[in-house]
């Protein structure tokens, strides 16, 4: 049960409603009127809750669940307990996520501007925005409708952010144009100066960084992550890309659509990640590389060369994941033989 | 000498007082009335200062110290200069730390709420708290007695923090319950949204994160570290655990009591660290693992499997530290042979 | 073209002016009166723009450039198109950076203190400073002339920062003395408590951290980076050193002059980096080591022993870069042979 201090439950919903919301199919049309009050896990749910089976490790828990309803893939329908109502989906986790969003939507923005917020006269404010205490919005900045600006966040001169966004407390946006439905978590730094110098024995000479950060729609940027603006070209984050906490994105980087970058990953300047690239935690990608679409990079890998689309890479320097496994096995064997 | 702009010295103390404070034994009871005015190092201390010997690398400095008094282990008593008064302790570094705390305690909280702080009417404020300029405390939040909220920190709706805490400037607390005597350093982000999605070719679907962060007593959380709230269960940080700067703790992680996580470490979702686990700097722990009690993990290691209690692990993927040393030695030998 | 919402172009300048600014030599003195309006790349520049050639990969683009002028090294002068005016420099990238700074200088500080800033009566404020909304300046703190304090930044009691500095929005300075012309980017944490404890089975005992952070002139500190104050000695950052985003500097560390630390690097307590050390991204340096002057450390390396001056190191544990290459080649060969 989600703590009501922090999360407000909506509903109840009928199972018929939830089938539509979750883009799933009711196994028995007559169960469509069954009322569901909450989501839950396979093991703790009761008659008025809905759960799901995705990872087949949990098939036996599924077979014994007392949940009133479950989302399940077609192949697992027959494992269900007799009295459990089923929503059948080819992507049960996705369907369940959509259902959880229905029960626990992001809280609607409550329009209002706190009197302690500091907003430049020339800022353009969309309808229904909320600006929390101490937030600062600079000259000419533009905030889209229903966007929520958290407490003590700072939006610099001229930046734009689209509708239905969420800017976390204590975050900073400079030199950027941000799309719609973007979530920026607390402490993120967007549009900061890229790390560009002419290195020189007389002292390094700063190269002004004259680009922006351009962020698409439906992007998420984690807490305390940093995205530097471009040096001349822009730094670009594609639609639907999800960035975890403490991630560093260097100047001129271009992330495609629907990439996923896990915590503490770093992408060096001018690297290109095509669509649907996944970086597990603490990955490093060197500058000026191209990582092909759909590539998956294992945690703590360091990528030093461009990677063809669809690869699975691991290691430092990163190579094909299967070669990395072989190297590890070989070394382990050799060490054992020496004992 | 600590800079008096930043640190206020208390005292003087008699050596008898310091023996009690440091849980140590006066070697010569008659030295109990000796007055000590400050702490210092073995090489820079004078007659009215106290120093310590812990690391035996410094035995010769100890033998020549001019400090008026020293904390020392029983085995090293005989190395002391003739005129140095001794406090004997089985844990000299610990005893010394307690003594330093007496001379330089955390500054007492000066009660008061800055007029520019923004505090919701429904917030519950303990006696003697201090709220600095620009801090924001949300609806229903609760702050324990004598807790200090730093400038421009943001405490979200409904959070709780116990007595004698310190919340650093520009930090953010959301969806969390925090114990007593907890230090949260500037820029830390507690209770942010965990990184949970149903990944999908149509676009990743966010899974609402409905848990909290629950932090025990006597915990320390470093500057700009991030602790995500749980997905449904809570993220839990055990009593006495110390977390350094720029550390990432994923959703549902459970850290035991008295763990130590050095800078830039990352613990992925749903991992469990039992009591007294030590992660050196930049360690990565993969999701859903259990690290047994008392395990020590070397800097920059990547742990990919559960680890038995009491292990010493190193490498990526991490294994027994002695095997890691062997692998490195073997590789070095082989490279040499090829020259 | 830099976006005028974010960057104001100065100029135009004559090529004679730019030669002086860039410390370069006009190839044809008669071109000194040519007027230049902007900078640009080799491929997108027109008759009134100046570009440069540094990396010889771009020689063919240089040979076809339509830029009105170019900065170029003596060896490449002959590759220039006939009608391109040349500024000849032994360090073309440096010369160009100086020229870009002339066209796009850091915006001058507009003097003024926002009414929502909170400044202690005993703070010492230099002439022409700018303090943005919500910034907090503590008792006895001192801010040098023309220094800009960003919105919601927090400067603690007694800290000092010299003239012509820039303190980013939402950053925090405590227990530190900062030189002139220092740029601190948003969310940086300077002077936070070092990670010092006496570890103990009864619970770790905090050792008060009684030193400062001392930062030289012309230093840059990246967004969300953290620099802990010393334990007793100070943490020291030498003149001209450049620190990227999300970098961690432990207590008592001493960085020399003109070091460069790329993103997500971490330097553990009491390590010493001599002058002109370069750490690429995600480097880790263990505590109490000395890295000799001019050493270069490859990305993602973990340095576990002191390093002689002028080295190029790589790997975990780090060794000579050429040995690291050999180890990788050897392992790759062995794995192939096994197939």
Automatic annotation (TrEMBL), chains A, B, C:
- What span is annotated as the signal peptide, if there is one? none
- The portions of this protein that span the membrane are none
Q: Which SUPFAM superfamilies match?
A: Trimeric LpxA-like enzymes
Record domain UDP-3-O-[3-hydroxymyristoyl] glucosamine N-acyltransferase non-repeat region: where = 35-101
What keywords sit in the KW lines?
A: Acyltransferase, Lipid A biosynthesis, Lipid biosynthesis, Lipid metabolism, Repeat, Transferase
Protein name listed in UniProt: UDP-3-O-acylglucosamine N-acyltransferase
Its EC top class is transferase
- The keyword Lipid metabolism belongs to this UniProt entry's keyword annotation: yes
What functional role does this protein have?
Answer: Catalyzes the N-acylation of UDP-3-O-acylglucosamine using 3-hydroxyacyl-ACP as the acyl donor. Is involved in the biosynthesis of lipid A, a phosphorylated glycolipid that anchors the lipopolysaccharide to the outer membrane of the cell.
> GO biological process: any one?
lipid A biosynthetic process
Q: Which InterPro entries match?
A: Hexapep, Hexapep_transf_CS, LpxD, Trimer_LpxA-like_sf, UDP_GlcNAc_AcTrfase_non-rep
**Any one GO MF annotation of this record:** UDP-3-O-[(3R)-3-hydroxyacyl]-glucosamine N-acyltransferase activity
Query: Which superkingdom, per the lineage?
Result: Bacteria
Query: Cellular component per GO?
Result: membrane
Please name the source species.
Hwanghaeella grinnelliae
Summarize subunit and interaction data from the UniProt record for this chain. Homotrimer.
HAMAP family in the cross-refs? LpxD (MF_00523)
Keyword Lipid metabolism carried by entry:
yes
